[in-house]
Task: inverse folding
């Protein structure tokens, strides 16, 4: 039964947005790139008219929003100004072969209008938002397949990407107070502040010229960037008590293997060092310098920002200043996660997204937790605030 | 003189209209000194002293508007370092950050992306509450509580243009933990994954002299040591500004707080002193200065226009004659006739 429910939710999330903008049933929309006129009719009602001399078609639409009965109720939202009462010879234009068709007033990029000229957002930047969500999280541990199911919540107080354009663009990514909490058994992660940048270099770091045959130039472009986090807390409930892991600060160098045009999607490697402190009921508190490396993919699949995929493969090697009773001086943590997020609904232009995620973990730093891979699946909904339209790429 | 009259009348009109506008929130004493009668309750740093102890809070309010959609506005309310210390209990409670964000639009709606997207009208604004870093520390207790995060998406039925009215409800999520002071370890986690409901209300008079705020939460929360349990919390606060010192308001506050998890009900009363605040924009403490009429321009004597030189006859030829022997001499009246005849 649950599988059916998930399948239905997945269909809603995946299929509906794909069909969201089938425009076939809609009246044609005026072009935002061509001029539009506002004309007053005999009953003093104002209409917007836009004529295309190439197709000999004039689209007209009321200059107000309509109610369900077709009555004019209020001014248009997000409509550009138009020249009022400009000279217009309809009879003459009809003699020239122009036809007049009812249409929709144009809307700004990222927005559209319905037949009643009401505007709404259809393009969302999920890299600029505040979000919180809840998910159902069945868990399967390889050595204990009967582990109980559980629920999780996640949140992000401030998710903000900023693109500095130009010939060598840079994308700044800021995340404040982002995390998630799993229950039964309990685990939680929260990051106070995160900042990373992606940069595209114009000049190659190395250019190699080969002289075998026709001389040829081969550029080696290294799109280097930076990744950092401050104040990360990870909590685990283990068979031998509670564990707290404070990653005080982590700094890494990134190498983007692939970047989209506006840098909002990428595949990258990153590596660096961090300073952490860990406390559990068996070993007490201990500090470590941690070498960490990761491979990340962050991919916006469609121009409207409805489908988003994230992948992370993380490897950490903390080196404790003093060895503990259950671990040596070195331990290892592996983590892999794949997440798909799709917009399924918007309330007052604030999107609700479906999140499907799977992650696995293998570590030997937690007393009582076997050094084996364990996997978690998440399926849930997120409520997002802000999420303005994506900038044109 | 006419221009001076016009200037005086204009200045008088300007004073009268500004007074009419300022009268709403500006009082004038018998000596003509002005004082504020309206206060901005959202942008201030205040100190509270009361039956429980001392408190401090920083409040900020601002709007986010959009040029291309004047009917849309985000009303952002922030409270930073909202805390208090109770002398009786030797107890500190505080919240590092508390935000309430409400998206006010003239046209509330829901978009259903089913086939052709459809827009369904909804009679409410939407928004969210967000709290980070709540601390409850009591010296006599072996553990203290940290509220890591509390969020709630809300729908606001008040749909007010300003901050004075809020009536919002929504599901609430929170994650709290108990920390043992001796072991410096987390002993209990409490999580409510949107399994609680939240109601928040605010009423504020237009002059800011009266305000009331209430919030209630109820539902079930999961505790790491004892599973799911019902819990409820509620708090209400009244504030009445009774005087102002140098236009900084001083208010009487009263509040009540209930927490089922702690099985405690607290009532408090106190006085709140505003240390810094943003003056209400409707207050005009400084009357507009009347510029004195411009002094009349000094009267200058008329400058005589020089007469054009007489035109020379063009057909008269001046021969290159030798200079007359008398040229350069002063001719007196006696010799004038003889001179003319000779020429």
Result:
């Amino acid at each position: 039964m649950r599988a059916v429910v998930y399948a239905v939710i997945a269909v809603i999330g995946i299929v509906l947005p794909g069909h969201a903008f089938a425009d076939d049933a809609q009246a044609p929309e005026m072009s935002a790139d061509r001029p539009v006129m506002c004309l007053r009719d005999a009953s003093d009602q104002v209409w917007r008219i836009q004529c295309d001399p190439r197709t000999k078609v004039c689209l007209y639409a009321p200059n107000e929003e309509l109610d369900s009965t077709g009555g004019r109720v209020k001014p248009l939202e997000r409509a550009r100004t138009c020249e009022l009462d400009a000279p217009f010879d309809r009879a003459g234009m009809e003699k020239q072969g122009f036809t007049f068709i009812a249409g929709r007033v144009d809307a700004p990029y990222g927005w559209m209008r319905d037949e009643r000229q009401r505007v709404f957002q259809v393009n969302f930047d999920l890299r600029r938002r505040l979000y919180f969500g809840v998910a159902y999280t069945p868990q399967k541990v390889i050595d204990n397949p009967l582990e109980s199911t559980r629920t999780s919540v996640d949140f992000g107080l401030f998710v903000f990407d900023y693109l500095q354009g130009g010939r060598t663009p840079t994308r700044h990514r800021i995340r404040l107070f982002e995390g998630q909490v799993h229950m039964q058994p309990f685990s939680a992660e929260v990051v106070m502040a995160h900042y990373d940048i992606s940069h595209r270099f114009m000049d190659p770091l190395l250019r190699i010229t080969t002289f075998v045959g026709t001389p040829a130039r081969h550029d080696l472009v290294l799109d280097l960037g930076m990744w950092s986090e401050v104040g990360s807390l990870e909590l685990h409930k283990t068979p031998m008590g509670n564990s707290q892991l404070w990653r005080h600060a982590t700094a890494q160098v990134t190498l983007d293997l692939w970047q989209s045009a506006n840098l909002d999607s990428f595949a990258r490697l990153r590596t660096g060092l961090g300073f952490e402190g860990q406390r559990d009921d068996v070993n007490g508190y201990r500090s470590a310098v941690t070498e960490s490396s990761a491979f990340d993919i962050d991919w916006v699949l469609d121009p409207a920002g409805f489908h988003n995929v994230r992948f992370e493969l993380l490897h950490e090697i903390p080196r404790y200043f003093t060895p503990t009773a259950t671990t040596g001086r070195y331990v290892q943590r592996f983590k892999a996660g794949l997440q798909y997020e799709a917009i399924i609904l918007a309330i007052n232009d604030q999107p609700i997204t479906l999140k499907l995620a799977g992650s696995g973990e293998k570590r030997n730093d937690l007393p009582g937790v076997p050094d084996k891979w364990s996997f978690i699946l998440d399926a849930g909904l997120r409520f997002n605030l802000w999420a303005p339209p994506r900038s044109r790429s | 003189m006419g221009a001076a009259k016009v200037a005086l009348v204009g200045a008088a009109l300007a004073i009268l209209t500004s007074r009419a506008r300022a009268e709403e929130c500006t009082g004038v004493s018998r000596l003509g000194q002005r004082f504020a009668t309206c206060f901005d309750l959202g942008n201030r740093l205040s100190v509270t002293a009361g039956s429980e102890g001392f408190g401090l809070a920083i409040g900020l309010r601002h709007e986010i508007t959009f040029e291309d959609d004047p009917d849309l506005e985000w009303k952002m309310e922030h409270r930073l370092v909202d805390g208090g210390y109770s002398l009786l209990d030797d107890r500190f409670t505080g919240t590092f950050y508390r935000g309430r964000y409400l998206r006010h639009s003239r046209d509330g709606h829901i978009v259903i992306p089913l086939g052709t997207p459809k827009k369904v009208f909804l009679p409410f604004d939407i928004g969210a509450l967000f709290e980070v870093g709540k601390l409850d520390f009591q010296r006599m207790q072996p553990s203290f509580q940290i509220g890591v995060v509390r969020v709630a998406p809300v729908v606001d039925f008040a749909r007010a243009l300003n901050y004075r009215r809020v009536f919002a409800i929504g599901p609430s999520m929170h994650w709290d933990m108990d920390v043992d002071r001796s072991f410096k370890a987390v002993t209990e986690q409490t999580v409510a994954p949107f399994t609680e409901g939240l109601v928040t209300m605010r009423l504020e008079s237009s002059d800011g002299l009266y305000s009331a705020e209430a919030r209630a939460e109820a539902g079930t929360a999961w505790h790491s040591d004892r599973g799911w349990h019902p819990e409820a919390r509620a708090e209400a606060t009244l504030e009445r500004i009774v005087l102002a010192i140098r236009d900084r308001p001083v208010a009487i506050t009263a509040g009540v707080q209930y927490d089922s998890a702690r099985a405690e009900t607290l009532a408090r009363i106190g006085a709140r002193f505003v240390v810094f605040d943003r003056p209400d924009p409707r207050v005009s403490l400084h009357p507009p200065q009347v510029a004195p009429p411009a002094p009349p321009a000094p009267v200058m004597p008329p400058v005589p226009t020089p007469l054009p030189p007489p035109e020379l006859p063009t057909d008269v030829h001046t021969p290159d004659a030798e200079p007359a022997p008398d040229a350069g001499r002063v001719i007196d009246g006696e010799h004038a006739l003889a001179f003319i005849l000779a020429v």
Remarks:
- Helices of chain B lie at 2-22, 333-342.
- Residues 2-279 of chain B form one domain.
- Chain B has one domain: 2-279.
